[in-house]
Amino acid sequence: MKLHVPHPGHHEALQEIIEVKEAEGLDEVSEVYMAGAPEVIGSGRATLHSARISDIKAQVEYAHQHDIKLNIVINPSCLGGYHLTHEGYKLFTWYFEELNKAEVDGVTVAEPYLIELLREYPMETVVSCIAHVDSPQRAEFFEGLGADTIAVDTNINRNFAMLEAILKAVRCKIKVLVNEGCLYKCPFRHAHFNLFSHITSSRSPLMGAQSANIFSDYYFDKCISIRVRDPSQLIRSPWIRPEDLKEYETLGIDNFKIAGRANAVNWIINCMRAYARRSYTGNLLELIDCPAELSYTFDLDNQRLEGCIQQWQNCRKICESCHYCDELTTKVVKVQKK
Questions:
Q1: Which of 321, 320, 283, 329 is nearest to 302 (CA)?
Q2: pTM value?
Q3: Contact 41, 76 (CB under 8 A)
C-alpha cells in the first residue's frame, strides 16, 4: 500500500509529518502533497499556505532525504480561459519548468490542457478527483492525454464494479481518496470547486489582481445544514474506513490518498496513523475531511461499521427502495452531548 498524505505547505509541518512517520514505523506513507503558488494558479480546495519555488526545492530535498516523494497540487476546475492565452501558456510552462528544476516528483491537475503540457516533463502527471473520472471511458480519455495516475471521482468509491472496469480499461495507476466526506452526488460540487479555484488565486483572470471578497461560503453552509437535518447523508458519503482498505487492494488498487491539506498538522497526523495502521477506534468523523466540523455535532462509532462494506460493495444506489443507510444511521450515528 502507498499512502499519499496532505501537507499544509510550510516546512515545519513537513518535518513533523515525516518525524512521526519514521518514529512510528509508518512505512506505508510514500508521498506528501501540497498546494502550488496562488500567484500562478488557484486550487480546487481551500489552501492555508502556499510555498514559493525556493521553499518547494528545500522541502523536496528534505523529503527525498527521507525517501518520501513530494507532489504539487494545482487543480482548479476553472481557469477562466487564462490558460489558453499566450500569457497563460508562458506562465504555466515557466512554472512547470521551475517545479521540474526543483525535482518535484509529481504534479496534480484537473484541467486537460495542463495534462498535455506536463507531457514535456519527467514529473508524474496525476489527474485530480476534481476531473470527475467516474467511468472507464473517461479514464481512457485522460490516459490518452498523458495521465500517469488518476484519482477517481469519489462518488464511485463504493462502486466496485465501476472501479474494476476502470482498472481493466487503463494501464495507468488508479488512486482513491479515502476520507472525503462530501455529500454523495453533491449538487454543489462543481460550483464549489469553481469558487475555490478563483478565491485561492491571487491572480484570478476573472477578477483582476484581487480575489473575490465573498460574504460567505454558501455551498459549505448548505452542505452542513443538509446533514444536520438528515444525518443519513453522513453514511452515504463516499469515505472509506481504514479497516476496509484491504477490499480495495483485493481489486488491485494500492494507492490511497488522504484528503485535508487545509487542516492542522495534528489532524493530518491522526489520519495518517489511522490509515497506515488500517485501524481506528472512536468517532470516524474525526478522520473525515469536508467537513471535519461535523465531528463536534455527531458521533459515528467506527467499530459499529464493521462489515458494512459488504453491503456497499454491491449497492445499486437506489436509496428510495433500499433504506440500508437510513436504518444504519439510527443505530450508529449519535448526537454529541453538550
A1: 283
A2: 0.94
A3: yes
Cell of residue 10, nine digits:
510550510
For the segment 77-134, what is each residue's pLDDT rounded down to a tens digit?
A: 999 898 999 999 999 999 999 999 999 999 999 999 999 999 999 999 999 999 999 9
Number of H helices, E strands in the chain: 14, 10
Q: Which H, E and C letters describe 110-137, residue by residue? A: CCHHHHHHHHHCCCEEEECHHHCCCCHH
Tell me the pLDDT of the chain averaged across its residues: 92
DSSP-based three-state secondary structure for 98: helix
Grid cell listed for 217: 461560503
Side chain identity at residue 31, one-letter code: E
Q: Does domain 2-335 have CATH number 3.40.190.10?
A: no
The conformation of residue 336, written as its DSSP 8-state character, comes to: P
| Distance (Å, whole) CA 140 – CA 142 | 6
Q: What is the pLDDT of residues 258-273, one digit of tens each?
A: 999 989 999 999 999 9
Looking up cell 433504506, which residue turns up?
A: 323
What contacts 2, CB < 8 A, 6 or more positions away?
A: 28, 30, 31, 254, 255, 256
DSSP conformation letters of 203-252: T-TTTTTS----S--HHHHHHHHHHHH-THHHHHS----GGGHHHHHHHT
Q: Hey, which bits of 153-282 come out as E strands? A: 173-177, 255-257
For residue 291, cis peptide bond before it (omega within 30 degrees of 0) = yes
Would you kindly state where each structural domain of the chain is located, as residue ranges?
Answer: 2-335
User: Do residues 72 and 37 touch, judged by C-beta distance below 8 A?
Assistant: no
